[in-house]
Amino acid sequence: MPVCFLCCFRLSTKNFLRLVFSCLVMAFADSTHGQPLLLKTENFDVNPNWEGRNNRATDPIPRQIAQNFGFNSSSSNAGGDPGEIGGLITPAGEPAFYGKVITPASFSEPLSASGILNVPQGGGHTLIGFFNADTVNEWRTPNTIVMRIYGRGTYFYAYLEYGTALWRAGGASFGGEAAIPSGAAVYPFSLNYDPNGAGGLGTVTATLGDYSAVMTLDPGHKADGAVFNRFGILNVMKSADDPGQLWLDNITINGEADSFSSNPGWDQRGNRKTYTSTNVRPRFNFGYSSSNFAGGERAGEMGGATFRGDSREEFNGRRMAYYGARLNETLSLNQPLHAEGKVGFYRGVSDSTTLIGFFHSTDSVRSNNSQNSATPENFVGAAIEGPSSEGFYFYPTYGLDQEGVRADGGRGTPTPPFIYPNGDSHDWTLDYHPESNGGAGSIILTLDGQTVTLNLDSGHRQIGAHFNRFGIITTHIDGSGQTVYFDDLTYTIGVAPPNLTVLKSAPAEILLQWPTTYNGFTVETALSLNAPIIWSSVTSDVTVNGPLFNVPVRTTEAAQFFRLQKP
Q1: Tens-digit pLDDT profile for residues 187-241
Q2: Domains of the chain and any CATH numbers
Q3: Helices and strands, counts by H and E, the chain
């Protein structure tokens, strides 16, 4: 941890020159160059008024969400006698479901369901299958074994997918991602999970009319665990999208049949309501907040709803965003960097990313149509990201001052730590060392003490990058959203000036050798026509580390002080 100092800058000269300065709080940490880093800590106890770009977006506009599904006593879209379940279902950031309460089951027990499905023409994005009512928060949804129905007008796609209790997921398509006709057609379906399939890994098999899909759980996923306590209909929880309809009838769940000749009284949430949602991709909504989700010592933090950005020129920068603190100077890959703090991850949709780190206020948000790399140019920091098969990692990454240059090291080694969107508070650190890795540079990231190292590729440090902000910045390739908060952040703002040694025999003028400008701070001067200033003897040699002064100085009236003022 860095050590914090309260630094009073004292200096006097002969004749009538008075240099007037006040106290400055600053932190220092060791660097590989022998000069200490200047660090700043932001606890967000009050709004720090960091710089924001599109971070509180008003575009796209909010959308009206209509959910109107459940039991219907008079319709028969799925065939047979009147009485079925279904209706209008809208993909949205907010969960909505209609499901039968079942005896809680896990990956250790077999599961089965069957019935009749009808998908009218239109849109929609809906899950049908086993889920947990207590963990419906995002997609891919943890604790699920489901069929996913994706309406595309006159046809729909069908997928088979699962999610573990630790947000790791897998999937398969029906008929090799066949376009299945929608409209009046009805499709008998089946969904079965065998815990002993594929040598004990666990397999899911499903049919939908003449189409079928088989899915084996990835190695290790069964051990993640899962709890299923409902079967039914669940909207895909990404962000607001076009609604669609589907209908189900004559369902049998784990051997129990229901023809829906009367109201089955299934559990429901948000399935009969109309409301306005601001969770519209990519409507960024992050920055300072008076909340305390990240687990800091006191209320106040930064973060919120992020989406992946989009650097394509057609958007003219409107779909990239950041919220960041100004640094004292522009830093580069030739200087060490340090950051640390707390993070709380609350919601993570598949194909989403949150980035925190060092970036440049203009050169990290340049428009470019190449779409070769999602990582912004001129960036060193940490990412919260998938892939869906692994849930979410917290890992180091970087971008150079050149579009599309990628790190061959991927997410670093060893495997980076997992971070789960369950709201737990975590401690993290980030250190960039320019002289490590044979002088090529490396980034070391920790989460709750678990470490991962990403070595910069040979030649990348020479290509270079530069940074004048620290905070959250969006990616350059679009995607889904997360909800993340950060607090109690400490980060590099500059590098201290060289040491200055004052000998006990030195005259007062030696201190005038100190730079009158440093890191964007300017030494203010003022002339005094009062009594002459008297230099007190220095009783021992004094080494000035960075901007630390500890030289006894007085005037005939009172001690004089430096003041560092940022332009």
Answers
A1: 999 999 999 999 999 999 999 999 999 999 999 999 999 999 999 999 999 999 9
A2: 10-25+499-567 (no CATH), 37-60+284-495 (2.60.120), 63-277 (2.60.120.200)
A3: 3, 40
